[in-house]
Design brief:
With 276 residues, this protein is of the alpha+beta class. It has nine helices and 19 strands.
Amino acid sequence: MDKCKSVSARLCCALCGRGFDIEPSQVEDCLEILPDMGWLVVDSSDGTTDLFCPSCSPWAERLSRLSEHSRIVPGLDGTFLALDTGDICEFYGKRSWDGERWVPWRCVLLPTCVDQGGYIRVSVREDGSIVQRPAHRLVAEAWLGEGGELPIVDHINRRRYDNRPENLRWASYEQNNANRDYTRPLVAIGDNGSVVEFKSVTAAQQFSRRAMMSANRDWFDFSDGFVFVYKDEYDDIEPGPYIEQMLEAGSKKEVARMRYFDWLGVSKSRRGASDA
């Protein structure tokens, strides 16, 4: 004589795993009332349905925004994302402690450094080792694909801190060298507020070899007593003492980045703020 076996279906949150067992015949009715209980029900394009409990629903919405504005960087150990802002993040898909509370997932903005050429670099895991890679190459590999026979990632607007995908292209050495404008006017700004204008990058390089590198950087480094800014960027600044705005912001795009990252659900690394 066959024994009766109880069969049940389990509905659980796709992020934290919390859920409950119900009879298979009650699944459709349960899916209809879950939104009234604070659950988020998402129908995927592949025909499956993802459920998110009330605690994880806000995180699920942020995860959806993050997926729209990021691409996975290929060839690395772990999950590293290239945002459409040109920044690199590491994604942690498991429940973890972010320093203040338990969260179902985390996406941490990687700390950065700037090499002598003015290019932003980040530390990532590759082939079992931690290596430093140029951020603009990671963004290009994620958003533009492989370059094929083109070996160089070129910044279209010549600003080496602007790693947005639309500002990058794969190019040959000849194309990269041709996209350099040494006639672009520069402005030198001293830490005492003094301003000196130069008619071209070439003229400014005679004053300081670091002129072009300083102008291409995202942040303001007054270690030499002055910084260089392209004349058109200087003219676009809002009215007011330029030196005070520079010291307050610290970076040409820091305020906008922080607001954008909060909207995406990306957090600053606990190892420190980004340098660029």
